[in-house]
UniProtKB/TrEMBL annotation:
Signal peptide start-end: 1-19
Official protein name in the record: Tol-Pal system beta propeller repeat protein TolB
Keyword flag ATP-binding: no
Region of interest (Disordered), residue spans: 387-407
Length: 407
């Protein structure tokens, strides 16, 4: 319904349409999608390369088709919106101009010009997809973010990053050991992860653009499941130095700041609320793993999930209203989402076994791993469970995805 109202505003007056920025709620089910036509790319100067035109058309179609408010159209005659793109190259550089046009009013909704190396063409395209969502919804898209994940493509469990759509996979670790559970810093400039490369499961922090790395926690036993606080100043993590797995707070340098859980049960998988005031985690203190929530100082610990006998790997939404997690059902796991007060527990997946859910930085999508096509692979879906799409760049076993805020 909101889409229809926005369309009416677009038809009535450009001024009203501008005032409607932020009006589309792309996380809500829609009954009427805006038809969007990605027009063939043209040349700013000279001829276009067919491969470039095809690549951009496919990129815009995937980005904006997944977003929800749009139906990608094959022609402009009946489209509500037309996405026009043109480019030129000089040496190894490329300039890309993109415009989103209201076809009925023949009015430009937004336009951007990007310049960079030819290798950055896809990034430029994703940037304009982000801009289209910002112009129509008031919230920037997540398509320029990167996804870090664990892959066995080399035979060992190494950490790679890739574009959100599976393109441009790049190796981060190459130590021939077991590397697990990457988590991006809020800045998008570094990750933390657990590695067995020195024998013990220790926590490492790695700068993504320099490759500089530090082992920040190497206490006896487990040092794992690190999660940055929203301001990046602290890390919630699991250590077993005192016997069983408990949740601690440490600084970015690994200095222990506080012990948050203290019991005979196993407490794991901490994840922060977006305002940094609470932490969701998994505990088997009542017999089997369930999702719990506590204040960021460890106080007020309380059970969240009351359904299912085995619930794990929770993650808080960027908007703070939902928590996704994996529930054991039959011989595998399915992804659920639940309100932070324990209501509206909704199953989102059903095919194969699905684990490791993480929200996109704008909260529109959930990325996760699934065995539905055989080997564990990475998928994404909208937060309502629709548009489940495989993005794994290879046929190797890929798991534990996490989506960067910025890149």
């Amino acid at each position: 319904m909101r889409i229809i109202i926005l369309l009416a505003l677009l038809l009535l007056a450009p001024q009203m349409a501008q005032a409607a920025e932020g009006y589309i709620d792309v996380t809500a089910p829609v009954s009427r999608k805006l038809k969007l036509y990605p027009a063939p790319t043209t040349g700013l100067v000279g001829q276009v390369t067919p491969e470039v035109s095809r690549e951009l058309s496919e990129l815009f179609g995937m980005d904006l088709g997944l977003a929800g408010p749009f139906e990608i159209s094959g022609n402009g005659a009946d489209a509500d919106l037309i996405l026009k793109s043109s480019y030129s190259t000089q040496g190894g550089n490329i300039t890309l101009e993109c415009r989103l046009v209201d076809r009925v009013l023949n009015r430009e909704v937004t336009a951007k010009r990007y310049s960079g190396s030819a290798k950055e063409l896809r990034r430029m395209g994703h940037a304009f997809s982000d801009e289209v969502l910002r112009a129509l919804t008031g919230e920037k898209g997540p398509f320029t973010g990167k996804i870090a994940y664990v892959t066995k493509i080399s035979g060992n469990k190494e950490i790679f990053v890739m574009d959100y759509d599976g393109h441009n996979p790049q190796r981060l670790t190459n130590n021939g050991s077991i590397n697990l559970k990457p988590d991006f810093a809020p800045s998008g400039k570094e990750i933390i992860y657990t590695s067995y490369k020195k024998g013990n499961p220790d926590l490492y922090r790695r700068e993504l653009f320099t490759g500089l790395e530090a082992r920040i926690s190497s206490r006896s036993g487990l040092n794992a499941m690190g999660a940055y606080s929203p301001d990046g100043s602290r890390i919630a993590m699991v250590m077993s130095k005192d016997g069983n797995s408990e949740i601690y707070l440490v600084s970015r340098e690994g200095k222990e700041l506080a012990r948050l859980t203290n019991n005979h049960a196993i407490d794991v998988s901490p994840a922060w609320s977006p305002d940094g005031s609470r932490i969701v985690f998994v505990s088997d203190r009542l017999g089997k793993p369930q999702i719990f929530v506590m204040d960021a100082d460890g106080g007020n610990q309380r059970r969240l999930t009351t359904n299912g006998g085995y619930n794990v790997t929770p993650r808080w939404s960027p908007k703070g209203d939902r928590i996704v997690y994996a529930r054991q059902e039959g011989g595998g796991f399915q992804i659920h989402a639940i309100n932070t007060d324990g209501t509206q527990d909704t199953q989102l997946t059903s095919a194969g076994s699905n684990e490791h859910p993480r929200f996109s930085p704008d909260g529109r999508f959930v990325v996760f791993s699934s065995t539905r096509d055989g080997a564990e692979a990475i998928y994404l879906m909208r937060v309502d469970g629709s548009s489940q799409t495989r993005i794994s760049p290879n046929k190797a076993q890929n798991s534990s995805p996490t989506w960067s805020v910025n890149w």
